[in-house]
Amino acid sequence: xxxxxxxxxxxxxxxxxxxxxxxxxxxxxxxxxxxxxxxxxxxxxxxxxxxxxxxxxxxxxxxxxxxxxxxxxxxxxxxxxxxxxxxxxxxxxxxxxxxxxxxxxxxxxxxxxxxxxxxxxxxxxxxxxxxxxxxxxxxxxxxxxxxxxxxxxxxxxxxxxxxxxxxxxxxxxxxxxxxxxxxxxxxxxxxxxxxxxxxxxxxxxxxxxxxxxxxxxxxxxxxxxxxxxxxxxxxxxxxxxxxxxxxxxxxxxxxxxxxxxxxxxxx
Length: 267
Ligand SMILES: C[S@@+](CC[C@H](N)C(=O)[O-])C[C@H]1O[C@@H](n2cnc3c(N)ncnc32)[C@H](O)[C@@H]1O
Hints:
alpha/beta, Rossmann fold, eight-stranded mixed beta sheet, 15% strand, binds S-adenosylmethionine
């Protein structure tokens, strides 16, 4: 099979990949047949999952706009995905063209496409990195070149922590990340959570992901709180993403209980 021109060398097109499956769900085109087939299986198992992807993306946008409005000018977006509409740098650089953004993802397609769309943008970069090795991300030369860790940074962990197992110890990883941040910095998360009346759908989705390299799991609000321990949760705390400062201009958005969202501030 010949690869499209945007596909980086060595990309494995035989196994579905979380970044590309999500891209397909959002209507993007940086995905392969194996990702589309897998996404269609997810959609058959749980038709509501498409709405979840869009709702999660809308949450990310609201978080970034809100933090930018509060004066945050540096963003470290880990598990950033394949750039699509409403990317973090577009939102914040519309407010302040000098605002800094670094995208980090484990997937080569996400990174290479990010690098392509950021070519010529002196204040934003996309790098490969793994949330399970925070020191490498924080110490990366592009991160160091663009972000000033003496000033507040917003770390975005949106729809990525549920790909980490308990053995990966997400609370310890987030502690390590936030230790490097200045007081007044923020951590934003969204996380897949169990919902009683969607038990079957969630189970099927978890099983399907179990056949891929990126397994997925739900966590309870208490487990999400443990991930953010030591930080001050900002209002309204850990809530379904659609209840996190809903956009008054988008009142039609259906309630989404399968994903929790929260933003916390380093004291
Ligand atoms: C569902 S997408 C979320 C994209 C974006 N944050 C959003 O919410 O719109 C999850 C992303 O996390 C990335 N990812 C999964 N595990 C990761 C890890 N250990 N380190 C960095 N990125 C990871 C995947 O490649 C994928 O691009």
